[in-house]
User: What shape does this take?
Amino acid sequence: MTQTTPAGWYPDPQNPAQQRYWDGAAWTQSVAPMAPPQPVVQPPSASASALASARVSAKGAAESVMNFVEGQQKRMDDKKRQEKEAAEAAAKAAAESARIEREKTAAFIKKYWWALLAGAVVVVLIFAIGIAKEREVGGGRTAAAANSSSSTKTVGPAAVVATTAPTAQELADRALESTFPVESARRAAVVAMTNAMAVDVFASDGNSYDASKFHSYADTSGKVADYFMNVSSWGTWSANGGQTWHVDSLVLKNTWDTSFDVSLDVKVDGSKYIISNVTVTRDDATDPSELSEEDHPYYSIPARLIKDDRKQAEVDALDHSGDLDKYVARTAFEKHGKSAFPYGFKCAWTMDLINEEQRSDGSWFFKVGVKITNQYGATRDAVAEGVVSGTTDTPIVGDFYAY
Assistant: This one.
């Protein structure tokens, strides 16, 4: 059987550089350029497959890394957002708290404006009084104001005033001061204790009190030894409720140099000042318990008895403590004894001093054990007492006895 070549384009037998069409039986006149050779497709080798697999793995790893980075970034963004929200919430809470505090402060000021105003007035008055007293003594002393909440510290040439927030007690003191000045309470306390200790305020029967004889705060007339009480220390005053002042450690001293440490309450009742809760301690052996009884007439003080202030010059004039030196008075006392007992007279000032006190007029009273010698050399123990008056320059011995 003869094999027939199918029709198609084949290399031209006459010109290898071109191809000619074969119609299945013979060559035709149709020619065409030779087609470029087609590349031979080779199956992928093992290394190429591995490379492709590595590329796929690398791509997956890169995607995983990108996913991880994006997740971390998202978490960081979420954290920043949460922190920002928390900061905004804290700022909002702080602003709200500040607003509430401002409202509380405004409400407090609105409620207690009168007390704050009174406190400010008191501070200004105290400051003004301090300046006035400094000027009065030539700037040598500074008056200390009781119950003041302000203190002044001098640094270099300037004075820096440090003010702290007032305590509840200070606010109460200021509130009471605006309606019942503590100065009035002080005077009432002094008047009460003055008349309680006075010996010239009794009726003719000698047992009951005559209120018409009660001494006022300003009184320095007459025989002051019978009644006058000087203030050694004003003590500590504080508001006790809305109508009462309380004092601790008010120290008063009479003209006989006896001290009284007093604690009491003062309240105002109409035109009178009422003293209560009295406790007194004396520096001598006298029992002061009677003064704690509150039904005495001298514990109800009319306003007229505290109306006028004491004149300091008159008070100072009552003080004769510096007129006669104690040791000069002792020397004069013993010299007088030696003149009375010329053979021997010696005072036992250290071992047998029985009594020694300065009286309101500045004179000294002595009572002391002595040793007396007679003209035969015999000695005996005795007691000598007497009063030395006058001044340091000219002491005078009187009422001298030895027994």
About this structure: Residues 180-317 form one domain.
